[in-house]
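Need tokens for this chain, all 181 residues.
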Amino acid sequence: MLFSKKKCRNCSEKIDNNWNFCPHCGEEVTRKSKNIFDEIDKHSEEVDKTLDQGIYFKPIKGISITISGDGTKPEIEVKNFGHFDHKAERPVEKIKERPVRIPKITEEPETIIEKIGNRQIVSIKLPRVKIEDIEIKRLEQSIEVKAFAGDKAYFKLIPIPSNASINRTFENDMLKIEVQR
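Here are the structure tokens for all 181 residues:
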């Protein structure tokens, strides 16, 4: 005679329909969750078991920055997360580390903004800056520009629409950013 089978909600092993408890993990199989907190506990236990087995979900990508020190020289540690090989349990790719620059002077650069139709042209004067010393980050509704020239740093935050396209050029100490809606 064939027994009717179902899966345990906790360990996914096959069990008989008439059993009240799973013989593999001991989970009560007839009970229904009484509230949302029981469901949350159950799902967090499933995640813990999955992680203990060495199976990882698709990770979130990002970085962690830790700044510490004794007040004389800061120690900066940058770690990435989300790029892990679940077999090796080690980072697959590393963040290209740039030397930490602590400028003596930080200033907002001279900036000219022109509006031409649906375009906005932002010209930023960056004297004695090399192209490799410019960092441009696109944020949700702005562009962050950092540039270094010796012991001087330039910093500019430019508001932009979230759906804008951006083009940039750098020549003759002038960074031009064209924002088009």
